[in-house]
Design goal:
heterodimer; A: mainly beta; Jelly Rolls; seven-stranded antiparallel sheet; six-stranded antiparallel sheet; about 45% strand; globular; B: mainly beta; two-stranded antiparallel ribbon; 1 helix; 10 strands
Chain lengths: ~500, ~140
């Protein structure tokens, strides 16, 4: 009978005969009701109408090619506001608006007055040792060329001059702390080019510079400046082409499976610090740790790490994408990590925590990655605030035996899992499904609520209660209040319903 | 994007200062007390900047000496440097300059000052007049 009612109800809703208004109770299976808001993270984007994202640091991802690289980023400031004196200065240049269009908006006309003057970033951009790509759009003015420069000081810079009409490159140079220079131009038609230089650097600060040909009163059209941290890439990445003003752009992490190359969805992680120094050139080192705490050691590829002192373990790796990990409780304050065999080892990492998180490249000192803080806003927030509603979240993975949050409401777990691997909600009381999932595989976790009843559903197994719950904002995805119980894994999709459903799956 | 190094002497001083700056919340209902480590600048009427607070605490540096641990490994001797350290990243316009935030006098703030020719940078509390120890560059680095 319930199935028949559910079917009829679903048909009525689908036909528009029943409005899915907040607080409404229907004996429906969620599969028969169109969600008020549906988010599919497999597309690699965070819908700005329903989510805000904060993660003010670089973070690595496993990209669509299966290789590790950086999540989208643009470190350049005022990237297409070259007349803004907070971002750019040109002591002997004049910057004015133009009608020359580009994918980043209209370019800027820069008029030079001879010599080697250029328009340059006001403030240096702090960087870690690693690979970067500097790019800009360029269209020909009267200047014969545009020179693109990553400048630190007179002894440390990389530059390439690009012909303004053909995009051809000449006079490449990389000196001091700059090396591995590659470059190119991409013709976008109509005389518009994307010109770029890719380089490796050991400096700690970079000023982007753009220089016309040095002929008095010559003009160049430029704009859409991007400086992005990368790992193996040597050409501009589409995902980094995000306009900035006073803040650098750090995009969320969307991973791909390194084996199947299938998208895994949005990754939400806590902040972590990699204590292993110079991770791009692994060498034996002693690391100060807190005694009596769980630490995780990891690396990709072949090679052997031998742990002694605070931890005792021999870690033998396998070819990428295998990540070899070991977690143990430290017995002293000094952890000796011996690189017994280097092999193809990449991204060695030592971090405080009971599981390894995404790779954090380091140089001469430990490096901390900020957390991923995702707040739910807009129509999704409205759906959650209803007196009755439902939420279904599909996850491809999770951290087993660790309590973590999928959605929090006003500082409490609205939907998550316990250390015992049960789906849970703590708005009024804990509801633990009897269906214990393996959280390393795919799971559907759902919650329905109304004034005096709730249902929590884990992969089709339901548990009910009669507690009162009215979710209130702020709502965070993948953490409690953006500060604890981080999901530390991926989320594929979320369905938000504005009405109570009997089987939130 | 600007990073600052903060010496608060000890944790209670940091908590008091972070509370003033909006980076620490008291317990309320089911919400536990703790640092609000990242987010938008508190009280910004037109959000233009985010921040990340990396609380390091006591920082240790090698003394130059070595010792032998219980396993027979030769390891460097480490010693705590003075201070209780936090690195603060402001990604956007400086909230202090915009009048949104006041730095409590209990904190010592270090900024990275670059020489005019770009050839070197130093941490300093007085715009480069005095150079702080170089080990400050090892404290709380943010990716």
């Amino acid at each position: 009978m319930r199935g028949l009612i559910a079917f009829i109800g679903a048909m009525l809703v689908a036909a528009g005969a029943i409005a899915a208004t907040p607080g409404q109770e229907l004996l429906l299976f969620s599969g028969g009701v169109k969600p008020t808001v549906y988010t599919n993270f497999l597309g690699g984007a965070l819908d700005p109408a329903n989510y805000t994202y904060s993660g003010p640091s670089l973070r690595t991802i496993t990209g669509a090619t299966g290789a590790i690289t950086y999540a989208p980023n643009n470190l350049a400031l005022y990237s297409n506001a070259l007349s803004n004196t907070l971002g750019w200065q040109g002591p002997s240049e004049i910057v004015s608006a133009s009608a020359v269009s580009s994918p980043a908006g209209n370019l800027w006309q820069v008029t030079g007055y001879g010599g080697t003057a250029q328009i340059q970033a006001v403030n240096p951009i702090s960087v870690q040792s690693g690979n970067y790509i500097l790019s800009t759009y360029m269209s020909a003015g009267t200047s014969a060329s545009t020179t693109l420069i990553a400048f630190t000081d007179g002894a440390d810079y990389a530059l390439v001059t690009f012909n303004a009409t053909t995009g051809g490159a000449s006079a490449p140079a990389a000196i001091g702390g700059y090396s591995n220079l590659t470059y190119g131009s991409i013709s976008l038609g109509g005389g518009l080019f994307k010109i770029y230089i890719a380089f490796k650097t050991t400096v700690t600060q970079i000023y982007p510079w753009l220089r016309p040909d040095g002929v008095a009163n010559s003009t160049m059209y430029v704009g859409g400046v991007t400086l992005s941290a990368v790992t193996y890439e040597t050409a501009p990445r589409a995902q980094d082409q995000v306009a900035t003003t006073s803040a650098s752009f750090f995009g969320p992490a969307f991973d791909y499976s390194p084996t199947t190359l299938a998208p895994l969805g949005l990754r939400i992680e806590e902040s972590r610090t990699n204590l292993f120094l110079n991770s791009n050139a692994p060498a034996t080192q002693t690391i100060t740790v807190a005694s009596g705490s769980a630490y995780s050691v990891s690396f990709y590829g072949t090679g052997v790490l031998t742990l002694s002192g605070a931890l005792t373990q021999v870690m033998t790796g396998s070819a990428y994408p295998t990540r070899t990990t070991y977690t143990g409780t430290t017995s002293t304050t000094s952890l000796v990590v011996t690189v017994t065999s280097l092999g193809t080892m990449t991204y060695p990492q030592v971090e405080l925590g009971a599981f390894a998180t995404s790779a954090i490249p380091t140089a001469a000192s430990a490096v901390t990655r900020a957390a991923d803080v995702v707040q739910i806003i807009g129509p999704a927030l409205v759906a959650l605030q209803g007196a009755g509603g439902a939420l279904v979240i599909n996850t491809p993975d999770g951290i087993a035996s660790t309590a973590s949050t999928l959605v929090s409401a006003n500082g409490a777990v609205m939907l998550g899992k316990t250390a015992g691997n049960n789906a849970t909600t703590a708005l009024a009381s804990v509801l633990s499904s009897s269906n214990t999932a393996t959280w390393t595989g795919a799971n559907d976790t759902g919650l329905s609520w109304k004034a005096s009843a709730g249902i929590i559903d884990l992969n089709g197994t339901k548990t009910t209660d009669t507690n009162t719950r009215t979710p209130t904002s702020p709502f965070y995805l993948g953490s409690t209040s953006g500060s604890s119980a981080f999901w530390d894994a991926h989320i594929k999709s979320i369905s938000y319903y504005s009405l109570f459903v009997m089987s939130p799956q | 994007m600007t990073d600052f190094l903060i010496d608060s002497t000890d944790l209670p001083t940091l908590i008091a200062a972070a509370t003033t700056m909006g980076f620490y919340r008291a317990a309320s209902g089911q919400v536990q007390a703790g640092f609000v480590s990242q987010g938008l600048i508190p009280g910004d009427p037109n959000p233009m900047a985010s921040y990340f607070l990396n609380v390091v605490g006591v920082h240790q540096e090698p003394t130059g000496a070595t010792t032998t641990d219980a396993n027979g490994d030769t390891i460097p001797t480490m010693a705590a440097v003075p201070g209780f350290w936090t690195r603060l990243r402001i990604n956007g316009l400086n909230p202090v300059a915009r009048g949104l935030m006041t730095i409590p006098a209990t904190l010592t703030i270090y900024t990275l000052v670059t020489l005019a020719d770009g050839s070197a940078s130093y941490w300093s509390t007085d715009a480069g007049v005095t150079h702080a120890p170089t080990y400050l560059s090892n404290i709380g680095n943010i990716a």
